[in-house]
Structure of Cell wall biogenesis glycosyltransferase:
Amino acid sequence: MADFYQNGITTTLHNLSNRPVEEIESELLTFSKKRPLGLLLPSLFSELEGKAMPKITEQIKQVPYLNEIVIGLDRADLAQYKHALRFFKDLPQHHRILWNDGPRLKALDAELAKMGLAPKEMGKGRNVWYCMGYILATGRSESIALHDCDILTYDRSLLARLIYPVANPLFNYEFCKGFYARVADGKINGRVSRLLVTPLLRALKRTVGNNEYLEYMDSFRYPLAGEFSFRRDVLNDIRIPSDWGLEIGVLSEMHRNYSHNRLCQVDIADNYDHKHQDLSLHNDQGGLSKMSIDITKALFRKLATQGFTFSTESFRTLKATYFRIALDFIETYHNDALMNGLVLDIHSEEKAVEMFAQNIMKAGQSFLDNPMETPFIPSWNRVSSAIPDFLDRLKDAVELDYQEHKQ
């Protein structure tokens, strides 16, 4: 049973009564008549062949309130795109697939690249950004939920609770972040959030001084959750990273663009499990190692825009402060696990903390060595200003792919 405590400066919407999903969906169906609702699914083709996505689609088929489903498909050739069309064919809701590796969308991407407006890295951020552009182009949805496609414990109640705060016309939220306990198979998961982000935010408060942004970020119970929802007007101005800093970048953009009373977080699942990334202790270009560097740089960049000055010495101090705080957190999580009959390997936890501490220095050095780095994807307002008909052509390209290859 969840508590009702409001931590920090971000409104938390709890799961206090385990309300039946059918009851929530009935309300959402009513809301959708005045405020059309959509779903964004950023997917790799390989996820269509995994265990999670077939279950997710079976659950989504039962959802009565969605006006639109937009699927971003990465790493797919023509045969795989056709397979995806068959895979999603039985969805009763209106849906379209962005074939990001198809010739039409690649041509549009090349056009943006010539003007310096295209995403610079492949990955989830790029996929989500193009899907956001398509949603703006269609105008079919006013409130949209986004969730990952590798959720092994998926239930349609997750979607209902995630979209509810931006769907209810009595609420004024522009953005909602999902959170949940990362517990599965008798273990506490979520290492990057538990052992990097939270202790790093606490360490930054000590070293650079507490400020509103750090307090805001530390308000989120699971800042790295891949599940969030938003009103359509959010999409015009948002600038998101194309690397692993996506979730931190989105939260930072919401802080920049909206007041706190327009943002919230919601409890969307009692348990949650998905594909786990390798720790990558000896490869900082992959797995959780690269993720930790990208996330840390995203925080440094945001603080720099607020006037904070960093140096090698300040990063050394930050690393030492982080390391002590993170080790204390390991003891906290270990005790929490024991009381709940769960397993937590202290040795592997400390190895992760040691790697994250080293990567704070790597992220800091990269930040200092590349002052001109601009990892953010331009806003769709900027793209539309530079190429006024681009969104229409994006929508047409997706439709042409669908009409040409549907069976």
